[in-house]
Specification:
- This protein has about 280 residues and is α+β, with helices and mostly antiparallel strands.
- It has one domain.
- The protein is elongated and about 135 Å long.
- The longest helix has about 70 residues.
- The chain has seven helices and five strands.
- A hairpin with a 3-residue loop joins strand 1 and strand 2.
- It has a five-stranded antiparallel beta sheet with strand order 4-3-2-1-5.
- Keywords: Membrane, Transmembrane, Transmembrane helix.
């Protein structure tokens, strides 16, 4: 019973972590702001790959930047599409207006190398989460411990560390830098100036969920270590039982051989006695 519970626990953790890591990777709600006055509401968020705006109701209740015209509509915009026209200029040298300068500062974050590295790290963690799930299933299905199982512990630890690095890198190179741009700083100032029925730009659920996933990979590591110890113990029992059967068969063959040798010796002794008794006296 203990083995089945441990098997199920490992698979459950590995499968749950796949869902959690992939949710965090694709979520556009790593940071955001919201507002709701009943007749109108809005929410905005920024993730690792895209940002979004969702709004309903009265047009005046808008989260937008002072230079954002027309009023923001519900949409999802991926950074890849926004970065097509970005040429990495010095935003202060743009002569096309304040709005373009502010947008340039934001795109410098969205299209920068730090975010690209963070995206690659998160994608690697998501891929490893799937590989670990199949690895755990193989461990449960195959009854004996193999040398390859030792490496899954390192992969789990590496994935957990990778997720923590993603959150740390995102906070330093995306969250803080976005809120330092004039565009979002203006939105934040407008929100704090009239914060009733509003929540201003702040960290949302996805980064915390990513940190939880990192911690759960440590828990999975402990569970997998226990599973490997259990498999080693089960394999030891199987080997001992096999050796016992082999020794039993060997002993049985040895006894039969000894008995056969004794019978042959007795038969030879009887034949010698008969031959001696029938021989003529000299």
């Amino acid at each position: 019973m203990k083995a089945y519970i441990l098997d199920g626990t490992c698979i459950f953790f590995a499968a749950s972590l796949v869902v959690l890591v992939w949710y965090c990777m694709v979520s556009a709600d790593w940071m955001g702001q919201r507002g709701d006055i009943g007749t109108a509401r809005y929410s905005q968020g920024i993730g690792l790959w895209a940002n979004y705006t969702e709004r309903q109701g009265d047009a005046w209740f808008d989260p937008g930047n002072s230079f954002w015209l027309p009023i923001q509509q519900t949409s999802i915009e991926f950074f890849q599409g926004q970065c097509v026209s970005y040429q990495y200029p010095d935003c202060s040298l743009l002569g096309s207006g304040e709005y373009q300068k502010q947008l340039c500062q934001v795109l410098a974050v969205y299209c920068g190398t730090p975010l690209l590295i963070i995206q690659m790290m998160m994608a690697l963690a998501a891929g490893l989460s799937v590989a670990i799930l199949f690895w755990v299933i193989a461990m449960v299905v195959y009854p004996h411990k193999t040398s390859m199982e030792d490496y899954i512990i390192y992969f789990c630890v590496f994935t957990g560390i990778l997720l923590m690095l993603v959150v740390g890198g995102w906070y330093m190179f995306v969250f803080t830098k976005v809120l330092k741009t004039t565009f979002y700083l203006d939105e934040l100032s407008r929100c704090k100036g009239n914060s009733q029925n509003r929540s201003c730009w702040a960290i949302h659920m996805a980064p915390y969920a990513t940190l939880v996933a990192a911690g759960l990979y440590c828990v999975l590591t402990v569970a997998l270590s226990a599973l490997m110890s259990l498999k080693a113990a089960r394999y030891k029992i199987v080997v001992q039982e096999h050796c016992r059967k082999v020794l039993a068969k060997t002993d049985a063959r040895a006894v039969r051989a000894s008995q056969a040798s004794t019978v042959r010796a007795s038969e030879d002794s009887i034949r010698d006695t008969i031959r001696d008794s029938m021989a003529p006296a000299s």
